[in-house]
What does this fold into?
Amino acid sequence: MRLSTFSERLSFQSPLCPDNLFGHLIATAVPGVEEWRDGVYRRTLRLPCGFGIASLKPFPDHVACTLELSDPRDSATALDLCRFLLDLDADPLVVDAALSADPLLAPLVSAAPGRRVPRTVDGAEFAIRAVLGQQVSTKAARTHAARLVAAYGTPVGDLFSFPLAFDVGELAVPESRRRTMAALLGALQSGLDLSPGADRAVAREWLLSLPGFGPWTVETILMRALGDDDAFLPTDLGIRLAAEALGLPTTPAALLRRSEAWRPWRAYAVQHLWATGDHEVNRIPA
It folds into this structure.
């Protein structure tokens, strides 16, 4: 596949905290689809007219973006996807001011102003990966996804596109997970829209109707794929551990009630709470 190359500086409103933003993308990267090389995050893009590869490198005042595209007509769409992936259109001053009104969150915001929500360039891909990652480690989820890519991925330059169609019977997962995946693939083929502009209420209702889709999986997809700034994960273990350390309620119901004070920016509160833990998603590799 022959690719044309374009370069662009992606601007953003300062401040921007790159640690959890790039750290999350790097730690969860699917081999063959994504990579971190020489301080640059690279991944494939599925675009209206073809495919591409985006290379992204953070700088204090911009993100350097290089696009390799099979069809130059996709350049504007590819740039929009990169901005969405890195949440570069957020207003950190508004978000940080709102969360800092809570005295328990204020020190976290002060320590790392400008946290963004790491998102995705492909909602369908992310939903499939979310199912693969249910009840397994990050490493195991990457392994399952890498096997899919090796078997069904389409070459794009030196990488591969993530497959959206495959034989669920070949997945090395429990039968219940295969049923969940089959239901998701069927929904996607029937019109389930998980793009940033999709109707979130419709997507949430449809996802919750699928077998094996609980609130954690659904809210994660809404946060990462549809860009829901208010998505919240009160059952997440990392969130509950952070809540306990900060003196917040730890039961999901009580934490959900307490999170009302953070609306409509609870997805950003999630990033601050996750960052209290010592996990590779919170830092860019040296």
Summary: The first strand starts at residue 4 and ends at 10.
